[in-house]
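Tokens as discussed.
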């Protein structure tokens, strides 16, 4: 059973940002399907009308949460490679960071790839942020193997697919075979070591 969340009062400032931050906090104990605009309003102590002035529906909220997630994941990945100069080690650490972020933020990662948001042009912030982790991986791969750029989408698909399976409680244990996200990412990237 999900643990009850401490009620947060909202007094002033940017309500839209507060709604996203509160939703992210709620995702630490709730499943994505359990999020609702009504629950957010109650959590922040604001009217549902105030919430609807920022998000016309749950899909708009999901898009805002996903945009935040992609931004944070890209920042996490960038921070992890900041001081790494070796191209192979940068590539490996990008993969590790991608998997680790997803593993540590499973509900958020699920929201980031939610099928609820189909119309990207309608959600400008999500459209802007969704490709950031992929771009970081692509840049690292190009730096490591510029002569094998055509392989990059397949390698990314493998890393992402493993990450999705690892984070799924139905498949995670069989997928990871007891390996940590770091170990799994490192072993996966080693397959492509030139």
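Sequence:
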């Amino acid at each position: 059973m999900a643990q009850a969340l401490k009620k947060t009062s909202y007094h002033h400032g940017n309500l839209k940002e507060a709604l996203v931050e509160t939703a992210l906090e709620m995702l630490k104990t709730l499943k994505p399907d359990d999020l609702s605009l009504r629950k957010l309003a109650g959590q922040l102590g604001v009217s549902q009308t105030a919430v609807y002035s920022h998000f016309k529906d749950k899909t708009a909220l999901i898009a805002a949460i996903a945009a935040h997630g992609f931004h944070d994941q890209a920042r996490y990945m960038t921070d992890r490679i900041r001081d790494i100069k070796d191209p192979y080690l940068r590539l490996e650490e990008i993969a590790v960071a991608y998997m680790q972020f997803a593993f540590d933020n499973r509900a958020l990662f699920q929201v980031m790839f939610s099928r609820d948001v189909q119309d990207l042009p309608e959600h400008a912030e999500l459209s802007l942020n969704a490709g950031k982790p992929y771009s970081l991986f692509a840049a690292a791969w190009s730096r490591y193997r510029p002569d094998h750029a055509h392989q990059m989408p397949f390698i990314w698909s493998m890393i992402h697919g493993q990450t999705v399976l690892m984070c799924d409680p139905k498949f995670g244990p069989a997928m990871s075979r007891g390996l940590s996200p770091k170990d799994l990412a490192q072993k996966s990237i080693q397959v492509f070591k030139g």
